[in-house]
Amino acid sequence: MERTPRPDKVAVVDEVRDRLGEATATIITEYRGLDVKAMQTLRADLRQAGGSYKIYKNTLARLAARELELADLEPLLSGPTALAFVEDDVAKVAKALREFAASNENLAIKGGVLGGVVIDAAQVAALADLPSREELLAKLAGGFKAPTQQFAGLLSATTSKFAYGLQALITERESADAAA
Rounded to an integer, what distance in angstroms lies between the CA atom of residue 84 and that of residue 64? Predict the structure, then answer.
């Protein structure tokens, strides 16, 4: 006789599946030993960075991972595990997690999912090393601005050199006319 899953568990699996599928990225952490105050601080830091942090039962998270064909994610879903869902800038959330883990040894980054691909802890650390989206956009804008400024400077220099040359020619002609 097959057991029918409880509706509340089905709802959790659906929630995890939906959040994994909709998030820009998901970072999996182990939170063994974090107290309530530390968890509140971590959640606030992640919220500020554009993410959210939630604890799910591993068995239910594994079921959601299977439904999304993320079998490589299952080994990461053991022990006291929490998921950090990224809504926007992956680098910001990864940095927030790394900074929190640096000051709190009870948080360990296990890996995650980025663009439907399972990544390991080293790859999450590499994401934390990336500049934020705002920094990248500023660099890109600066890259577009520099050639425009150089071109404007070149035009300005050409115009002023032409004006100096024209003034020198006029002065020379005036002095030649005065001598004649």
Answer: 15
Contact partners, residue 2, CB within 8 Å, separation at least 6: none
Give residue-wise pLDDT tens across range 123-134.
Answer: 999 988 887 767
Tokens standing for 87?
Answer: 């809504």
For residue 174, is pLDDT > 80? no
Q: Is residue 97 exposed (0-12), middle (13-18) or buried (19+ Cβ within 10 Å)?
A: buried
Lowest mean pLDDT among 9-18, 33-42, 97-106, 148-157: 148-157
Q: Which of 87, 83, 93, 111 is nearest to 46 (CA)?
A: 93
In 3-132, where does DSSP find H-type helix?
7-22, 36-49, 58-67, 90-103, 121-129
The residues near 84 (Cβ < 8 Å, ≥ 6 apart) are 26, 27, 28, 29, 46, 51, 52, 53, 93, 97, 112
Whole-number pLDDT of residue 37: 94
Rg of the chain in Å (alpha carbons): 30
Spatial separation of the C-alpha atoms in residues 118 and 116, rounded to whole Å: 7
Q: Look at the chain and count its residues.
A: 180
Contact 86, 114 (CB under 8 A): no
